Amino acid sequence: MTIAKKIDTMMSKSSWIRKMFEEGARLKAQHGDDQVFDFSLGNPNLPPPEKFGEILIETVTTCGPGDHCYMPNTGYPQVCRSIAEYLTNEQGVAIAEKEVLMTCGAAGGLNVILKALLDPGDEVITPSPFFVEYRFYADNHGGMLKTVATNPDFTLDLAAVADAITDKTKVVLINSPNNPTGQVYSDDSINQLGQLLKEKSHTFDRTIYLVSDEPYRKIIYDGIQVPSIFMAYRNSLIVTSYSKDISIPGERLGFVAVNPKAEFKSELIGALALTNRILGFVNAPALMQRVVACLQGESVDISQYAHKRALLCDGLAECGYEFIKPSGAFYLFPKAPTEDDVQFVKDLQQELILTVPGSGFGCPGHFRIAFCVNDQTIMNAMPGFKRAIKPYR
Amino acid sequence: MTIAKKIDTMMSKSSWIRKMFEEGARLKAQHGDDQVFDFSLGNPNLPPPEKFGEILIETVTTCGPGDHCYMPNTGYPQVCRSIAEYLTNEQGVAIAEKEVLMTCGAAGGLNVILKALLDPGDEVITPSPFFVEYRFYADNHGGMLKTVATNPDFTLDLAAVADAITDKTKVVLINSPNNPTGQVYSDDSINQLGQLLKEKSHTFDRTIYLVSDEPYRKIIYDGIQVPSIFMAYRNSLIVTSYSKDISIPGERLGFVAVNPKAEFKSELIGALALTNRILGFVNAPALMQRVVACLQGESVDISQYAHKRALLCDGLAECGYEFIKPSGAFYLFPKAPTEDDVQFVKDLQQELILTVPGSGFGCPGHFRIAFCVNDQTIMNAMPGFKRAIKPYR
């Protein structure tokens, strides 16, 4: 073998998920794309807001010759300023231009943060179920991902988080609204988490950072509010992207914001600029930076996702599926009717329904349905969902 | 200190370069941007080719709703195909769509390659002077950069490369046309290097990869040819970007191509797709992928760089500077008139001329002039260059 041993292991380990995707591709080739109900990917189906298209055309047609050049590794100052102003309102804390760093999506931003923070062997704690890529991101930079189960309703189990923190803990990484559960952590639980991290930082004489990955912040239902991270805990960072809320995941545009009250803030900001550079991101894509600067607060029509959520939840409840209704994002994470979630996902494939087993998110016995699909796909899949659960009832 | 110790060290180590840039910024603030002769950055000053603007507007105005979505981690198949066709002609070897992987620039591509290949402690050999970021890229993924001096005329010293290869060597990384010297390695030397790597791979029973970083391939002078890497050695990869040849460095668009004859090719391609994903790049920016697919073979007007090269070389020769005339790229790497290149760069700053000391490229006693600037900047800086060298003559 000529590739790195670790990468080789990762490839063979993830091969059962790959096999599932390959099976999906096989089914599509056999039956036709439109005959297969693909709920496997968080690839938003709603088009970007109309204003995105307008601003994009305007930006492109008014491009000057220097507009595709390098800019500071942290991004265009005017773009950071525009985001800082929006965030100030969102977080209830005054945020300055220099506290915002433009990144290649949230995935890029998370790598930039972890590279800047982790010493070898440092632990990153994340509530489970969790976005599976977190494990790779921590490992990329010499860290270890440590997962802590949430409560059965997927709310934060603060006692479990407290127990998990050690003198090796450098980061607590949360994702709310959550992928794969769609749960939004309450204001209370975020404040308690902040208090806990303050105490634990004191106990271990070591700054523990709260990193909040929130690309789904604007995709929320029933008038729920996503709490302010910066109000809850000073040593915190927000990382997010425009992938989901304005449906441009392929463009790789996001940002990191550093709490203006963070200790050693200027070292931290300097470190993020350095890691953005040396990891090879260099800077977030120039044109899209200038576009999103004009789209602060914009989002796709969330009521359409709310409608899809209703269609899916009502339909599955009627079939007898058990689940916690998501307060945000576009995922549902029902219990599989058997402990063997991989088997049940295969059963669904027999019905030409593609989903992802909970094992892929550190939570066996469940499966994830991404409902960022056409309403018709949801409705037409219902008979299949009904047939698949029948043998288990 | 709360940031990672290694990052903290990197920040303090690079601080003298940073201080130099800060000094440049201070000079600009004091004297006005146009009074300072800034040769410090490889930020191309020529505008992108006209066709770029046309294709960009056409691409944006014909965007469909799914055109900003995720695509395969390796890039749009039709974009990879278009590049593979162009490369087939350039390299003289038939290259298939699946052998091309779209990346966030060459910097992204290099990280993707090294993450895919390096086991802890593996060595990456590169001829010196070298692009300083290589050291970070190797270190990011547990590797060690090992530099090998080139000949005094900056051509490859193959005996030195042979001596440097050990049972830890996994990659030989070349950059031709070179940053900072502008030298282009000859067909002969590339073929000999290929032969050497074949022998050494056999000796150590271990595949040694040749990675060719070639963002300056199209920026060449005097009708010189850049040799085919794929013809010279089977276990090779090309990594490049559109940053320099069409002047869009801020857009972060490049690609990796795998030699169609490489051993374990499918594992290697799979590994690259995986590392592109888990490093957080996920995919190269969507819109620009589709734009560059229509710009294969395009470049800025190279004759303008040739003119700048002539202005600079003629002027500096007259002042008494010694240098090897660059065959490509837009850098000149003259000898400093003293061994203390940092001091001489400071002397030049007194003349409001900003350059980078050779120490920053592993080659003290030299300094780098990036001549991707206005002709006027070159001409107006000449009296300063003349005054700066005077005390040393």
Give the SSE layout.
2 copies of one chain form a homodimer.
Chain A: H1 5-13, H2 15-31, E1 37-38, H3 50-61, H4 77-91, E2 100-103, H5 105-117, E3 123-128, H6 133-140, E4 144-149, H7 158-164, E5 169-175, H8 187-204, E6 209-213, H9 229-232, E7 236-241, E8 254-258, H10 265-278, H11 286-293, H12 302-319, E9 331-332, H13 341-350, E10 353-354, E11 356-357, E12 367-370, H14 375-389
Parallel strand pairs in A: 1-10, 3-4, 3-5, 5-6, 6-7
Antiparallel strand pairs in A: 2-8, 7-8, 9-12, 11-12
Can you describe this structure?
The structure is a homodimer of 393-residue chains. Chain A is α/β, with parallel strands linked by helices and 393 residues long. Chain A has two domains: 5-48 and 301-392, Aspartate Aminotransferase, domain 1, CATH 3.90.1150; 50-293, 3-Layer(aba) Sandwich (Aspartate Aminotransferase, domain 2). In chain A, 43% of the residues lie in helices and 13% in strands. Chain A has a seven-stranded mixed β-sheet with strand order 2-8-7-6-5-3-4, sandwiched between helices. Chain A has a three-stranded antiparallel β-sheet with strand order 9-12-11, with helices on one face. Chain A has a two-stranded parallel sheet with strand order 1-10. The longest helix of chain A has 18 residues, at 187-204. Chain A is globular and about 60 Å long. The interface between A and B is large, with 75 and 75 residues.
